[in-house]
Amino acid sequence: MSAGAQLTVTDKRRATRHPVDYPVIGEHRVHGDVHMHVVNVSAHGFTVEGELPIGRGERVTIRLPHIGRIEAHMIWATEARYGFQFERIIRLDDFMEMISKIQPNPRLRRAR
Q1: How far is Cα 24 from Cα 84, in angstroms, rounded to an integer?
Q2: What is the pTM of this model?
Q3: Which structural domains are found in the chain, ordered by start?
Q4: What burial class does residue 42 get, using C-beta atoms within 10 Å of its C-beta: 0-12 exposed, 13-18 middle, 19+ buried?
Q5: Which residues have C-beta within 8 Å of that of residue 71, sequence separation ≥ 6?
Q6: 30-39: long-range pairs with CB below 8 Å, 24+
Q7: Which residues share a beta bridge with 48?
Q8: How do residues 89-103 score in pLDDT, each as one tens digit?
């Protein structure tokens, strides 16, 4: 039996990633509140930098502007970088609205 997460969303690591500098607090079932620093985000997931007390396959729930609460599974980890995949894909219009709120540099935002 596999011990990892059983994701319903296919692996989309080639999706367009938007660089961000966004602190969030993830909710973990064992560790409670986990402070995270999101450095890029796509409609399928996000990357975090910094140490985390959780491992591959574990899930966290985060709150994003316009999106609200969304659950994600850690799918990879290297040194102090971690990749998470959302449990559901974010619709393009909702994603663009979120990016307009968290993107640190408006010149990096894609044209609508």
Answers
A1: 13
A2: 0.80
A3: 18-106 (2.40.10.220)
A4: buried
A5: 59, 60, 61, 86, 87
A6: 34/60, 36/60, 36/62, 38/102, 39/81
A7: 38, 82
A8: 999 999 999 998 998
